[in-house]
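User: Okay, second chain of the day. Same drill as before: sequence in, structure tokens out.
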Amino acid sequence: MTGHATHPLADRMRPRSLDEFVGQTHLLGDGRPLHAAARSGRLSSMILWGPPGTGKTTLARILARHTGLAFDTLSAVTDGVREVRRVVEEARDREAATVLFVDEVHRFNKAQQDAFLPHLETGLLVLIGATTENPAFALNNALLSRARVHVLKALSPEELRSIVESALADTERGLGGRGVALEEDAMNTLVDAADGDGRRALNLLETAVLLADDADGDGIRIDAARVIQAASASMRRFDRGGDIFYDLTSALHKSIRGSDPDAALYWLARLLDGGCDPNYISRRLVRIASEDVGNADPRALTLAVSAAEAYQRLGTPEGELALAQAAVYLAVAAKSNAVYRAFNAARADMERLGSAEVPPYLRNAPTKLAAGLGHGRGYRYAHDEPEGYAAGEHYFPDGVSRRYYEPVERGMEAKIREKLRHLRELDGQSTERRR
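Assistant: Same drill. Structure tokens below.
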């Protein structure tokens, strides 16, 4: 390859106009916000939030071109406040607004983000920030209040196919002059491996061509095996600690809560495939056992803890099967969040009531002084009472009484519910006798 072909295919095929741009029709279709901004030439600060390879950088360049304003770029990975000041000074020198594109804007700390604010207010800078992280968490409120957030979506299989076909046909910037042909199975494999990322699709195509390139560079035919060779590793999107990570974890939790063992296994496999720490997954499973299964099936907590211990002993990959076993058991187990709700209500009352005094008869009396103060006096020892229950006894602080725990009529909690109903009947009878 010579000339412009020495640049990566993804860079050579970067769209130059809205007409060439593929995807994001919810933002760029007729009457949509960014389409209207581009056609009018009036641009306001914005944050482009979406997965990698969805066109954030390209879209920023195209929008700036439509405004006719100067365009400058920074990367939050390598640049800082000093570079922001440079851009500001250059804008002042030309006495005109500048569109400033900041890639990975979420990597700027609060002080660095604040450096933009006065210049956004005066209109000297029009900020276009790109991020793969949720702006609500990654950016400060002052910046968010001055920039509209636009959400970009992962590219659909049809959109990825269109991008690849354009690269195969384009004789100026793409592979159209090299006689490259992509078999249908290879196209399907490539689109699947790209996983919504247009840049990845073109990189995979270029790598596959390099691997299959014959001596004279003509007549290159790419099959599915060649695409798989080019991929050579998991191509599914995963960002440890980012939005996709938490979305996958949420999907696992909700699948188990919804009693769908098959979906639970799928999301578990996705997390493990993406490199999620299995110890994190095991901790989440233990949490689910208490939060969503609870006393409807107390064995669930034991099994979840055992699965965590099994992984500790076996490691990857053998120990992952124990996590799968626990996930399936939790999914099919009877469900109750009664303890979870009850504990949250008790915590809320604790915060509301403050340090309510422990009634004297419930206090410990380890010394003569404590006993002399009446600690423990009048306490009824439940084991000496009929049915081992001190009917009518009050264990809350004075003036406080609340029923937190309401077992559901599922699994083991159905029996617990019946037991509590009986004990409360005894409480009622004790009250009647006192009258």
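Residues 411-434 form the longest helix (24 residues).

User: Thanks, on to the next one.
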